[in-house]
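Re: beginner question about structure tokens

> Can someone show what the tokenized structure looks like for a real chain? I only ever see the sequence side.

Sure, here's an example I had lying around. Input first:
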Amino acid sequence: MTINLESSVGQIATEHPLATRVFARHGIDFCCG
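And the corresponding structure tokens:
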């Protein structure tokens, strides 16, 4: 998967599981759409 402006946060989290640490640290919801 290529990350671009069309990628959802959920898609990024699925393809790049370690990104969830960054999302959590910054309060970005990556679960549930």
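Each token stands for a local structural state, so reading them left to right follows the chain. Residues 9-15 form the longest helix (7 residues).
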